[in-house]
Write a structure and sequence with these properties.
Distance between the termini: 20 Å
Helix content: 55-70%
Structural class: mainly alpha
Order of helices and strands: EEHH
Number of domains: 1
Number of helices: 2
Strand order of the largest sheet: 1-2
Number of strands: 2
Length: 85
């Protein structure tokens, strides 16, 4: 159980609460959107790292290998840098 901020009043409430106790905003949609966004970031990061590793190790020349490094770094950024809210 985690605390999330209400999009309307910015009150911190449980992610299990059906509505915000302060303003009454329904919270189920907000929690589902946050989880979906988190899952999309994870999938994007993993795919970028995998593509980067494949390009780095199997590229026929140095320029394509460097593209793999860039894709891998981008994947790490997606995974470990927090998303702006």
């Amino acid at each position: 159980m985690a605390l999330v901020k209400c999009a309307d009043c910015q009150a911190e409430i449980s992610d299990q609460a059906p509505t915000c106790p302060k303003c009454g905003r329904p919270m189920a949609a907000q929690a589902a959107t946050a989880k979906k966004s988190s899952n999309q970031r994870l999938a994007t990061g993993v795919v970028l790292i995998a593509v980067g590793a494949l390009a780095y190790f199997f590229a026929p020349d140095i320029y394509l290998s460097m593209g793999g490094v860039i894709a891998g770094v981008a994947g790490l950024v997606v995974l470990f840098v927090p998303a702006k809210k």
